[in-house]
Amino acid sequence: MARRTVADQFVEILLAAGVRRMYGVVGDSLNPVVDAVRRHDDIQWVHVRHEEAGAFAAGAEAQLTGRPAACAGSCGPGNVHLINGLYDAHRSMAPVIALAAQVPSTEIGTSYFQETTPCLYFRECSYYCATVSRPEQMPRVAQTAIQEAIGRDGVAVVVLPGDVADQQATATYLEHPYRLEQQPTARPSDAVLEELAEMVDRARRITLFCGRGVAEAHDDVVALAARLKAPIGFALRGKDWIAYDNPYEVGMSGLLGYGACYDAMHECDLLILLGTDFPYVQFMPSEPKVVQVDVRRERLGRRSKLDLGVWGDAGETVRALLPRVAEKSDSSFLDRMLRRHGELVGRLRTYAEEVSDHRPIHPEHVASTLDRFATDDAVFTVDTGMSTVWAARLINATGRRRLLGSFVHGSMANALPQAIGAQVAYPDRQVVALCGDGGFAMTMGDFLTLLQYDLPVKVVIFNNGSLGMVALEMLVAGYPPYQTGLKNPDFAAMARAAGVQGIRIEDPADVRPGLREALTTEGPVLVDVLTDPNALSMPPKIKGEQVRGFALAMTRLVLAGEADEVVNMARSNLRNLPRP
User: Fold this and answer.
1) Is 229 left (phi over 0), alpha (psi -120 to 50) or beta?
2) C-alpha span between 50 and 73 (Å, rounded)
3) Which pLDDT band holds residue 258 (cuts at 50, 70, 90)?
4) Which of 3, 151, 231, 404 is paired with 96 by a 20 to 30 Å CA distance?
5) What one-character-per-residue DSSP string does 418-460 give?
6) 51 has pLDDT over 80
7) CA-to-CA distance for 30 and 187, rounded, in angstroms?
8) Which of 120, 141, 143 is nearest to 130 (CA)?
9) How far apart are CA 78 and CA 521, in angstroms?
């Protein structure tokens, strides 16, 4: 009988917890673990080109499937590369187990080649990080890591020296099975529910603002809105779960916002936050009473003033509240918000059609076309920046589509590696990565991972030759954009050189046929769309200091002899340039 190593034991514990893939780059300190993966049929090693991409891919898989996923990095630089993707997974509440290989146990503390201290630098991006220094520790450390990851929805790290991984496994009697399907619910106390019901019954104008926490409560939230005549707004991570089949929807708030959500939140007299940890205090109202419902007590009141904190699951709370509140008859506030929302969204979509023949190509037209041609269960991954803006505003939820991005951590270059994790997990599902040119260039090496595994991801690059969101941030702060320009290659030609179909779109007349061809082609495809570098995205409400900053930046550009750039920007953004 073959010797069972500590690495075998670790892999089998992962398998028992439902892990089916480990993303990483092989390396000497990882050799025992990689070989254990090779010898176990039910787990796959996905060889990415950069460990950061592996961590992003694992986080995406975990978010989509609800099961834990794993990634790994060899000692020192290999596992240091995991950090950014693990930060994103941790802040996105994705159950990810990371293996950080370590130098030989006898060399720890001697400034050995590639030696680092993983338990120090993974501390902030994980709930748990521990080193296995003896074989007897493995089952308890690995299982504790898994329990932390799946129990708290985040990252756990196991640090494992290569020589320990190759030793014979022991303490097998400590291994135990998992029940991943058991998900407890948390219901508020009757006293808190009665207090909430009294606040609801007293209020005349109520708005519901939803986040990811309403994932299993769509119908209940819509039923509550119907009873209260309440508009429903949402944060970006709530869009997938509440923006479809919803006659009370009024869009999003925040920097990416659209529609009447901002107005509904500020003109109500009771705002109920359901399962959201919306981060932008600047967009939260100060006048209405605010109730927050969250299963994580530590989040109550940390983003806004709070008149009542309700500790409980959003769905359970809504279901318990429904029979306790009286139906409202006055729908004037709801009707007014819905009219305003219809006007604003109609204007946005009309604009996307009106510019369909404009040159340079407007990114809104590209996103709108993708929305029309993509399947109803497509997974969209979006880079941080303008790509997220266009997706948030123009990619419609269907109840089956998913929209993933670095929405809490805000990292560049997340879309391509997240698309890898999504496509590996769902090989028969359409996956579309909406990449900025800056983000794609940052992790461009992992485009080869699509080729290596023949993953049919459709990569659409908004190629505007600029770090567009950074340029906008400079403008509204009063600075002329500096060092935001990018000198890009022909990305489609690069794809073809790598053996992947590449489509370059420069003429607006080619947007529809080019994207339709990409989405219907088997295998990976890269679409390089040259978009207008002057197309800007403005938040739903412009503050006075932003107007002054924008005007100051424009003045500086004119005085610097760049008046043509100002004129081009105005022509590209007549619909949304800030006005005093």
Assistant:
1) left
2) 9
3) confident
4) 3
5) HHHHHHHH-TTS-EEEEEEHHHHHHTGGGHHHHHHHT---EEE
6) yes
7) 44
8) 141
9) 35
